[in-house]
Design goal:
Blueprint lengths: L1 E5 L4 H13 L3 E5 L24 E4 L4 E4 L1 H11 L11 H33 L3 H6 L7 H19 L9 H16 L12 H9 L7 H4 L5 H14 L6 H12 L3 E3 L32 H6 L6 E3 L9
Parallel strand pairs: 1-2
Antiparallel strand pairs: 1-3, 3-4, 5-6
Helix pairs in contact: 1-2, 1-7, 3-5, 3-6, 3-7, 7-9
The structure holds glutathione (GSH).
């Protein structure tokens, strides 16, 4: 039996759930405590990685612990060659799928995570309490205070407040526009067969479905249509908790959008050959003192509530 250590809402973990189901392997999920991660610490930390992250898998049958989503996919494909193929085709096609996975892990997933969390902070911060605290915390004042603290911690961990300053929205938009153009007229992300690259794209776009700047961009509609189509065929999970929370919040208040700018900026990440980059920053240093200001002011610059996109705001 394969055990998947996960945070349920993580788009990296969703990618692995999709792959395990596609391969029809027997597996079980273990939700980890997001801070202590105690459930997985009995397994030694892989030497090339700085700290425990999810997804990670423990394969009982082969006594193997593998961390990091793309190495997990490589491991599953190599260990279970008789299962439906994640990396179909010849060696060149398989290498192209692998490279595409690392590209999505870095260029798409890192900024998508930042924008997905930022959107929750703008529109439904107490949802962070439901995601990160393992017990139901129902008292409204407590939810508010804990949501605020969690939002600040995440803001520090991932530099959400710098997104406007470094042009991250425009940089991701430019990447997604070229990806949309590249995929136009193509049934599959790589080559001429369905592969784990299609599953990866579907899972890793999910955080952006709640961010109007991307979700309401008509030029990106084909990409989101692909995301919906793959999930309709390959997933039985439905909306995630954060999508449901945002939908509920928008029944009461207009979505938070951003003022549009013209900028030509490249994503500040580079894709590795063997492993994806990560962007987690140490939380508990002196920079934390400035976080209440960044959380309340810098992060919200250029944002406003508007029911529908306009020529200047999306
Ligand atoms: N490149 C890694 C990214 C994994 C990652 O960053 N996972 C996050 C959840 S989305 C995590 O475990 N975070 C824990 C932490 O920040 O301490 C992969 O592809 O698996």
């Amino acid at each position: 039996m394969i055990t998947l250590y996960e945070l349920r809402w993580s788009h990296y973990c969703e990618k692995i759930r999709l792959a395990l189901n596609y391969m029809q392997l027997p597996w079980q999920a273990v939700g980890i405590h997001p801070f202590s991660k105690k459930e997985m610490r009995m397994h030694a930390l892989p030497a090339h990685l700085p700290n425990y992250t999810v997804p990670a898998v423990w394969d009982d049958a082969k006594s193997r612990f593998v961390m990091d989503s793309t190495p997990i996919l490589r491991y599953l494909a190599q260990s279970y060659p008789d299962a439906p193929q994640l990396f179909p085709g010849d060696a060149d096609n398989r290498a192209a799928i692998d490279a595409q996975l690392l590209e999505f892990d870095t260029m798409l997933s890192l900024p998508a995570r930042r924008f997905g969390y930022s959107q929750l902070i703008f529109e439904s911060p107490s949802t962070l309490v439901d995601l990160f605290m393992n017990k139901p915390w129902n008292a409204p004042v407590l939810r508010h205070v804990v949501g605020f603290v969690l939002g600040m911690v995440l803001c520090k961990r991932f530099d959400f407040h710098r997104a406007e300053g470094i042009g991250l929205y425009e940089a991701l938009e430019a990447y997604l526009l070229q990806l949309t153009a590249r995929l136009q007229g193509r049934a599959y992300v790589v080559g001429d067969a369905f592969s784990v690259a299609d599953l990866a794209l579907a899972a890793q776009l999910r955080p952006l479905t709640i961010v109007p700047f991307f979700a309401d961009n008509p030029q990106l509609a084909p990409l989101f249509a692909r995301h919906r189509q793959v999930l309709a065929q390959r997933s039985t999970e439905g909306d995630s908790a954060y999508q449901a929370a945002i939908a509920k919040a928008r029944l009461r208040k207009a979505p938070v959008r951003r003022i549009l700018h013209q900028r030509l900026v490249a994503l500040p990440f580079s894709v590795g050959h063997a492993f994806a980059a990560n962007d987690q920053i140490n939380v508990w240093d002196k920079g934390m003192w400035a976080m209440p200001y960044h959380y309340l002011v810098t992060l919200r610059r250029g944002k406003l509530r508007l029911r529908h996109a306009s020529a200047t705001v999306r």
